[in-house]
Structures are given as structure tokens and as C-alpha cells.
Design brief:
With about 300 residues, this protein is of the alpha/beta class. The protein contains ten helices and ten strands.
Amino acid sequence: MIAFRAMPVRDIDFPYKQMSLEPIERAIRRQQMVARLTRNPLADFVFRVCDKVLSYKTVRFAQDAVEEVQAKANDASAITGYDQESDDELLVAMKYAAEIDGGFAAQTYSHALYQRQVETLTKLLATRDHDTFINFGVSYAYVDDLLASKFPNVTFIGVDRSKWTKMFNEMKLAGRPNLSFAADDILTVLRKTPTRNGIFFHAPTGTYIPKPALLDIYKAARESGYRTIAAYEPFGLSRVTGEPYQFSFSEQPSIAYYNGMIIHNYPKLVVDAGYVVANAAVVETDFPIAPDHRILELIATG
């Protein structure tokens, strides 16, 4: 792991083993160029007469979505998330559950990430006298269920805005007395669940939340007694800037990644909320869709 200290500041590099970033950077530049060209009013006429270039319109829509995310990334008034009545999040949770129930092939991205989380969180829970563990954006509570079986004296709460996800977890993971679920706003849950020494966990959830809202959540967690933050959040080459993100303890804006995701400067955010970064590492997993995709593992205490 990459050790952090308050002073001097050591930034996290953007490591890639035996991999050139140039092909990805070129692909991002091409997408941006296609988007600019297809925003021309004449483009719609071309699309109507030539089906072969319809794929360019798809590229433009993808770039438009990235730029829309960028417009919200640092906006305190932006509203993100999904409709609480929608079944979108439930479908994601069901997909993870089906993968696990089907044997959870060791080579999958999800398996590698879950395995890392369980190993790190097991060590974390064993080293300090924690009493509560909140998973912000729980989806399918596979990790929570494993940890709850290992630490019966810790209260585990999986929080998700979707009532359908809550019901699905309760159906699939019934019978664990120290594991429960809440379908509510995370700030409300934190106010209702003060703790003496809790862990606030998210993976990956912060990537879908504007920077000011995420900072407010961290501050609320600390005020409610969550002395540890454990985060696993994605990052890579921004589809807006075409460049890797540099994590540091210096102030910098959040940047859109791709597919609705935002890259935040998590070390600075947790420090601003009153925490100290204890450890950070880059987790390399074979993500099938984006080869530049990495996960930042961050542990902060306060």
C-alpha cells in the first residue's frame, strides 16, 4: 500500500503495469472530434441519408453524457442518483447476486474487487474496537454478509435509496441478526445512527455524487461518530480532459470519468472533513470495458 502522511504530501501516481496509455488517449481524442463534428446542424441530414455514419451519432451521445456529468461534478445544487421507484438499481444488485450464486469465476472484475475489500476490511475491523459498519450504496450486500458473519458484535447497515434493493437483500440474506438494510437518504441514516466508533464504507458510490454533496456526507459521518472511512472508487483517463487524474492533498476540481462517473480528489475531501488519510493504494483489476479503469482504495481515520 502507498502510505500517506500529513506532511510532506506525497501524491498518488497513476500506475499502469506494462501498458501504454497512448491508444486510450487517441480514442478519447477521436470521440471528442466526432462529437464536435456531429453537433453541426448538417449532421442530422447526413444521418438521414447515410446509415453507415449512425455510429458516429452514438459516439456524440456518449460524449454529450460525459460533458453533462462534468457540468454537475462540482455543483452544490446538482441532483444525482436514480429514481427511488425505479428498478434500475435492483437489476444491478440481481446481476451481482447471480454472478456470485453461479460460482463467481475467479477471473472476473467483481471477484477481484470483492476479495480485496473483504481482506482489507477484515483486517480493519480486527484492529480497532468498531461497533457499527455502514455501507453507503450497498447494492447486493455480499461483502457485508461475509463480514457480519466474522464480526457478530458489530452492527452492519446496508444503505441504498432503492426500496426494491432493500427488499431483495432482506430476501436473499435473511437471518443474520447483526445485518440490516435501510432505503433512505444517507444523511438521514447517519443522523439516526450515531456511533462510538464506526466505519463508513462506500464502493463505488462516491463516483456518482457531486463533490460538495460528498464532502457534506463525510462531515456528517464524522459528526455521527464514524471514525474510519473505507472507500473503493474508480478512476482512469477522463473522457473530458483525456488525462489521468492526480490524487493529492491539494485542492482541485472533480473531473468526469465516463459512463456517468466522476473522479474526486478523495484524499483532500476526507482531510477537509476532519479525517487523516492512513493508507491508500491503487487496485488493478481486469475491467473488461475500459482498460484504463483502476480502483482507488482509501482508508482514513479521525
